[in-house]
């Protein structure tokens, strides 16, 4: 080694020690107030302030009415301006009476689509959603029934097509969720209820709408972060959401030659009736606090992703993806 190379090495080593000493000194000073990782405040990424924990300590009777929630979900997306991305199209949304489904229905209407809403029995929520869709200048059809029933699904698809003369978008969103502390708490009947609603319901609806879908149509499934990561006390629900992600990718391959795209959105915690109708008042007060944003999403923070995946102008080259919208870094 030449003398000049030896001096260069010593200079580099000296610089490294200097950086180390400077950082050691900063570390000895302890955590500083500007360290955002230590904050327990809800993270805000827009000018609008979204609510953080504690959320209202409320327990709803299933299936859960949005009208009964003490803190109403935010779904109108007042800052979202429609631009005709879905003009002349027609969509069918299961679980469209409240929560994410309601928020999606409103934005689809704002983008120019007529909307059919499938719901179980929440008549008041469904009527409210119909009013919001019609306020956007579009038609809304309400279809009351159970997605576990394939005959109902076929009839719903037929009625939507009859009403609008076409069917371009299916959003599979209806779901059942109930926590269980232990595997032994899950009976076969209960497991079947979750599976039949969350997986079979998606299967039945996809099969029912397929005869009406043409090239440029799309199917969007609501998955979940629990299907990506699992959830200790949502064993059956997480299982169904993982199955939905696989179903999405498989169906995307199956329908690609027909020009029909299939994608999924995997939300993190979202403030909808589904969760207060599951968790205890003490647990729901902390809902969303374990995300990096330290708060649950509001439905209007999810709905634009459903527009993106439905609009041919936005996502004609996208199929078979699971889009995480989780409030945490990296999904």
Low-pLDDT runs? none
**Which architecture name does CATH use?**
3-Layer(aba) Sandwich
Series of H and E elements: HEHEHEHEHEHHEHHHE
Count up the helices.
10
Helix percent reads 25-40%
Structure description:
By secondary structure, this protein is of the alpha/beta class. The protein has ten helices and seven strands. The chain has a seven-stranded parallel sheet with strand order 3-2-1-4-5-6-7, with helices on both faces. Helix 5 (188-209) runs parallel beside helix 7. The mean pLDDT is 89.
Quick rundown:
The protein has a single domain, classed as Rossmann fold. It is 39% helix and 11% strand.
Defining key terms:
about 325 residues; alpha/beta; single chain; Rossmann fold; seven-stranded parallel beta sheet; 10 helices; globular; about 40% helix
Question: Secondary structure elements and their pairing?
Answer:
Blueprint (H helix, E strand, L loop, with lengths): L2 H26 L61 E5 L4 H12 L3 E6 L3 H13 L4 E5 L5 H15 L4 E4 L15 H22 L8 E5 L2 H5 L5 H21 L5 E7 L13 H4 L18 H8 L1 H4 L6 E4 L6
Parallel strand pairs: 1-2, 1-4, 2-3, 4-5, 5-6, 6-7
């Amino acid at each position: 080694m030449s003398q000049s190379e030896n001096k260069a090495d010593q200079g580099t080593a000296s610089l490294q020690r200097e950086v180390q000493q400077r950082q050691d000194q900063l570390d000895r000073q302890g955590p500083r107030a500007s360290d955002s990782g230590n904050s327990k405040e809800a993270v805000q990424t827009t000018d609008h302030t979204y609510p953080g924990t504690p959320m209202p300590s409320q327990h709803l009777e299933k299936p859960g009415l949005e009208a009964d929630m003490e803190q109403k979900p935010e779904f109108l997306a007042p800052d979202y301006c429609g631009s005709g991305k879905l003009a002349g199209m027609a969509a069918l949304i299961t679980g469209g009476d409240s929560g994410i489904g309601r928020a999606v229905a409103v934005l689809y209407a704002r983008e120019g689509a007529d909307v059919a809403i499938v719901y179980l029995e929440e008549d008041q929520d469904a009527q409210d959603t119909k009013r919001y869709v019609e306020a956007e200048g579009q038609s809304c059809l309400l279809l009351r029934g159970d997605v576990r029933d394939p005959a109902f699904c076929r009839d719903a698809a037929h009625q939507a097509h009859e009403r609008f003369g076409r069917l371009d978008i299916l959003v599979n969103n209806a779901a059942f969720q109930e926590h269980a502390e232990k595997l032994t708490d899950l009976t076969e009947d209960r497991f079947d209820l979750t599976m039949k609603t969350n997986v079979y319901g998606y299967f039945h609806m996809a099969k029912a709408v397929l005869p009406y879908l043409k090239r440029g149509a799309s199917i969007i499934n609501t998955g979940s972060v629990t299907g990506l990561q699992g959830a200790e006390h949502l064993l059956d629900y997480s299982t169904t959401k993982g199955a939905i992600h696989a179903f999405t990718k498989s169906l995307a391959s199956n329908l690609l030659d027909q020009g029909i795209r299939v994608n999924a959105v995997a939300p993190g915690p979202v403030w909808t009736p589904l969760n207060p109708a599951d968790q205890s008042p003490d647990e729901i007060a902390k809902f969303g606090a374990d995300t990096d944003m330290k708060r649950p999403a509001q439905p209007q923070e999810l709905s634009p992703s459903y527009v993106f995946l439905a609009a041919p102008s936005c996502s004609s080259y996208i199929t078979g993806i699971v889009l995480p919208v989780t409030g945490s870094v990296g999904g």
